[in-house]
UniProtKB/TrEMBL annotation:
Keywords (A to Z) from UniProt: NAD, Oxidoreductase
Enzyme class: oxidoreductase
Positions of the 3-hydroxyacyl-CoA dehydrogenase NAD binding domain: 11-188
Protein name: 3-hydroxyacyl-CoA dehydrogenase
InterPro entries, per the entry: 3-OHacyl-CoA_DH_CS, 3-OHacyl-CoA_DH_NAD-bd, 3HC_DH_C, 3HCDH_RFF, 6-PGluconate_DH-like_C_sf, NAD(P)-bd_dom_sf
Domain of life from the UniProt record: Bacteria
PROSITE patterns in the record: 3HCDH (PS00067)
Provenance organism: Pseudomonas juntendi
GO biological process: fatty acid metabolic process
Amino acid sequence: MSTALSKTASIGIIGAGTMGAGIVAVALRAGHAVYLHDTRQQALTQGAESVTASLDRWVKRGHLTARQRDECLARLTLAAELSELSACALVVEAIIENLEIKQQLFSALEAVVGEHTILASNTSSISITAIAATLQRPQRMVGMHFFNPATVLPLVEVVKGEATCATVVAQVSELATQWGKCPVECKSTPGFIVNRVARPFYAEALLGLEDQVAPAAVIDAALRDAGGFRMGPLELMDLIGHDTNFAVTRSIYDAFFQDPRYRPSLTQKALVDAGWLGRKTGRGFYRYDPGSTPDAITYEAACPQPKLVQQFGDFPGAQTVRHVAEEHGCHIERHNGDGYLMVDGVQLRPCLGLTALALATAQELDQVVLFDASTHLEAASLVVLSGADTCRRASLDSVVGFFQALGKQVVIIDDVAGMLVTRTLCMLANEAAQAVSQGIATAQAVDLAMLKGVNYPVGPLAWADAFGNHNVVTVLDNLARACPDGRYRANALLRRKALTNTPWNHAE
Ligand code: NAD
């Protein structure tokens, strides 16, 4: 279709707000002449200030010289009229999130630019296919979804609508790479990759809170300090803003025709209704007003180290547990069995989606304790446990003492199916599998998107391989029995991977 987008190509950006200004700075730094258009003169002025501030930050950090910054700014044109973008090889739109307004803009733009100009939208949630539908040449329309702040976060989802030409996708991906970004290609689908695959990270925490599995601070600590995520899901929602997060969830739920997998949370709706939108309003799950103190977490008090720890058969993460135990001078005897530890006579099992009580009842064995998953047990500072109702306090203490001897803090949560981290990781893997099986993106692209777009400690599919795809399916099937509304149905391709013991071709 069009020639390659070289450094000499002029780039148009429409919308001088948060995202537009960030994208302008990135394109200027890459050497392009940039034309920034906004309908409001004030937005143009503020956008230019924001671009200057980004460039100044790069100078301060030694990424640019003062002279390079000045050269960048000399290549920026503030365009009061859309017609000033006529010579651009690529135009990226970052205006208000409204389909009709975006369609009107692109129609007006098509009348101005050349026939080979690539038209891109930074939309977070609107179908690229739908935006392109009113264009004369819809094959040149593509999604170019940056993450906020665009000057910092490397991921760009390059989104292919039904009509988008493959060459356009390839050219935009190549350009994003030239801009120092990490492009991942995907089909236009609600939430694209990141906003869709990340839904369970929020939803499982909200369900855990509603079911009173643990207080908010413990849920966050579980995902952060045991699970290995940079932030807990509840504190992250407080940072994003509940209005934004709830709107994204609702839009994805509606776009998937009310699939229970994406059902929004009444707890979050209540926060939105109350105006407790998170950090920006001083209150969300937590309080941020001056003088407020962070919610305290009750960690388990020090318990004695157990005398005898035995391993019976294999289980997911067993090797890591043994490795960490050895490093702490704790010997584990090995025996045959169906995959558990015995800690001074207490059965300790990894969570595979059944409650400790269900396992205790099935085995006619009262003393059963479960431990929650971790993406990186060696580095985790916390281990999350739950005990069967039939389990004595002294039995729990033996297990607490075992993990404390391994240098971990311990919290005990309610005995629910899937605990906290296990069900979240399995649902993330299931959603990633669903996106792959529907041809939205490759396994590699999905994992890369979650690593680069939202800083996950590991790609969901790489984690599924490490945990065992058959174990992920077991967890999901157990959750589906506990909550049979379709939310936890396992993806068919994930089942095939489990049955054939084949790994995903994921990003490292
Ligand atoms: P914003 O409100 O900060 O900026 C939007 C700008 O567009 C405003 O300056 C406004 O004056 C201008 N504008 C509105 N209608 C226009 C029109 N018809 N022609 C020209 N200019 C117009 O918005 P934002 O947060 O930068 O979001 C912009 C787009 O990027 C949206 O589609 C959003 O979904 C998407 N996005 C946002 C984020 C984010 O975190 N903010 C992240 C990724 C993608």
